[in-house]
Predict the structure.
Amino acid sequence: MSNTPTDRRYAKSHEWLKDEGDGSFTIGITDHAQGLLGDLVFVDLPEVGTAVEAGNDCAVVESVKAASDVYSPVTGEVIAVNEALDGAPETINDDAFGNGWMFKVKVADAGESDSLLDAAGYDALIAEEE
Amino acid sequence: MPFIPHTEKDIREMLATIGVDHIDALFDEIPSELRCGELDAIPPGMPEMEVSRLMQTRARADGQPLCFIGAGAYDHHIPAAVWELTTRGEFYTAYTPYQAEASQGTLQLLYEYQSMMTALTGMAVSNASLYDGASALAEAVLMAVRGNRKSKSKRILLPRNLHPTYRRVVHTIVCNQQIELVEVGYDSVTGSIDRAELERYSGEDFAALVIPQPNFFGVLEAVDELTDWAHDNGMLAIAVVNPMAMAILRPAGEWGDLGADICCGEGQPLGSPVASGGPYFGFLCSTGKLVRQMPGRIIGKTVDLDGKTGYALTLQAREQHIRRSKATSNICTNQGLMVTAATIHMTLMGGEGLQRVAAASHANTGKLTQALTSLPGVETAFKGAVFHERVLRLPIEVTKALRALAAHNVLGGFDLSDDYPELGDAVLVCATELRNNDDIENYRGKLERVIQSQVQTPCQLKPDW
Amino acid sequence: MIYEHSRVGRRAMAQAPSEKVDMAGIPDAMLRTSQPPLPEVSEMQAVRHFTRLSQKNFSIDTQFYPLGSCTMKYNPRVCNTLASLPGMLSRHPLAPDTHSQGFMACLYELQDILKTATGMHAVSLTPAAGAQGEFAGVGMIRAYHDDRGDKERSEILVPDAAHGTNPASAVMCGYKAREIPTGSDGDIDIEALKSALGPQTAGIMLTNPSTVGVFEQRIKGIAELVHAAGGLLYYDGANLNAILGKVRPGDMGFDVIHMNLHKTFSTPHGGGGPGAGPVGVSKRLEPYLPIPMVDFDGNDYRWLTERDRPDSIGRLSAFAGNAGVLIRAYIYARLLGREGMHRVSEYSTLNANYLLKRLMETGFDAAYPERRASHEFILTLKKQAKELGVNTMDFAKRLLDYGVHAPTTYFPLLVPECLLVEPTETEAKEDLDRFVEIMRTIKQEAESQPDMVKQAPHTMPVRRLDDVRAARELDLAWKPGD
């Protein structure tokens, strides 16, 4: 039984992307990704105002034995970051799809996310990787 | 066979187990055309007693001249216990503490080292060492470029009165990353950073200002104003300090309103012999905010499964073995053993002991200055306050004078004529706590004779250098 | 914690000058207002404390230490004794050449010995460690291309199994690191290499024998391919112990190499250094070698500096690198001599192949069973992890209980559940046999009482540590009141 939320889209590099309906998207990493990394010890977030391009790394999540880049699935400008993660990176381990969100991007082209995976597509991707 | 324990019987049995006839068969995957012949150019092996004789001869050949050179390496007393303990096999022949449970000795010691370095420099955090002072500054520059989020530039202000070799090393290490080093001159009267020249860069975008304390001339900088100036202009302040000076001068963490952001330097004065330039160790401390930009090992305190205190390598995701091409540095093995010595050294000296060494060295350099400037034509080059090192100007050609002194087994200081020709016949001198009044008088007497001989009988022949 | 023994006013009195004099000429505002808060303990308290700390370490002098890729062989005591002669320790690095002939003679001869041992044209001793040698080596590759006006080369190729220092060094030299996959036999995937090579290739960094412990047999062909693309070959000397006196990097076609003297030339590892990473080059890279170097005109030794070597990539440290390490390596090389060099590779390879064979007979899986081991080999505990739930880390920790330092774990990453084992030439057969018996015992424990292994170690000063807490709740320095 999949726990992958169906209200959002997914990148192959394991980020999720939720349309806020106001031209902005909330971005985080998937529960599957946090599980692979293990206990997170630090999250390096972009600064508000940073311009990001789809496919470019703009944040880092660190566990004890690994560090992984987080790629923005869309092009735009960072308009908010989840400052609560600073000092509580474990929030991503506990609630990757909810309180563990990482940053919000205001996009120019809302259609950009259409090419990303839906929940079923992402589940299939994970199944394939395993 | 030296250091190889195998008996003929062992070898036979081992080969039989493997299933080959002779040892050379184990190299059968190496294409035969690549195999090398005998290494004839390497001399045959020598027994320990012959090597001992050779090395004793070599060590004696260099004599043990009376040394008044500092210039980045300082001959201080090292308590006997320091190297007795440091060369215990358990420290000397262990490696990087990858298996924390079997390396608590090294790990706890490094944590104690970090504690002592932060105490000495007044900074929040310290790493567990870098190669030496010069490369530590290069790493500090890279760290500042990564860590200064206010600055978009990759430009660094580097004073010209910083150790000339440090400037060269920084250039070698950072030049391929499009970092620009902009030099700031010094005030010819005081020997400290030229404030008027610095002011010209006010309002420009630089990642950091490097502030030496003391500077290469031994002169003390107005560190509070410089630090505040850097911060006011959106730069980080990188302190390059002699750790011995930190025992007595205000520590980098307390400079200006906010303190320096990064403090680095040469750890040699803390328990490493001058020993031809190494091994020494570089230290690197910073504010807590910059800790994830640090290169090198960092040890953290934690607990084990039973809640018992233990120590472990931490923040490893910064390092090359995990982060590979995105690591903060390529540094891996560096100067663990020298840090072991430094930790024991600082423990034995304590704050009081280090202060006494610093004060005695400072006083000796003062005595030396007084003795030498009593000679006609010898004068101090700068008016600024100094710490335990000073630039003197000679009435004769400095290179020649130092060569004549060396012929009499006195190393009279570091010749500044190559790096600072504008200073004329200038020499940088230092007398640590190990030089006594007789040594100073010895130097004065010999310099007096050298000056007399050169002033009275000008050399008619063109020198051959 | 040393600070726990600290009491205000206590000192190791004999160690510092007996009186405290004034800081004449320094304005009060520049002085510290309070003493630096260092420990205040007696000499005996310090000696006891640090002696006890040392006893919490595993070391070559006390334990078998088969840490793969690190060459933890015996460090002869005489190397330390002679490098610590008063004339060696008291020589100031800026002493004039007239007072440095003995020291420089050792360095000059070491340059020659290393040149011969590696088949390179010239050697500079100055890099302070392997990683600094890599930086210097890649820096020379860059200087060479730049000098030829060949400025479009932007990539250094590194095998996916390479040490992390390789890609990190390439980036420090302003290059992009591009990974090349390893084939199933442990050698480079030649097809992937061919497709990665191009006008953007500055060079390739290789270890041979590679980090998976086998000799790259097609090295000559790889050299031809890379050279044909205009790139240069860098040899990471981490595994030089395996081939000393048998095959030389220079003869394999490498343009630039570094050597880890703390591995192959047996200088101590010191709990994480000091090492030394001299670099050797082929003729075309010779002008770029880092300075200083030592020259000899038949009578006198002298330093080669900026003046003599204007094309040098420059200096890497304030003086001449880790001089004392170089002296130790020199002494070791003189003790071994030319005939001793062969024996290093012969007996380290004999030990590795014997140990591998015995472990395979004991039921362990080699990662590359068809290949000859070099001086080290990889076991994969994939089967044990899957069937028993006991992984490589558990085996490693249990080894500590039996008084053996664990081999390198989880490196290289491409082999799952791997142990990289390097026994070195200085271990006796009975110590290798004992290791086999310990591994057999742990395997049995993993089958009959897996929790015993999964909870290991049980006999160390601490049990497994909470690494997550160490990183989340950073405590990096003792504070008063701790």
Notes: The longest helix of chain A spans residues 119-129.
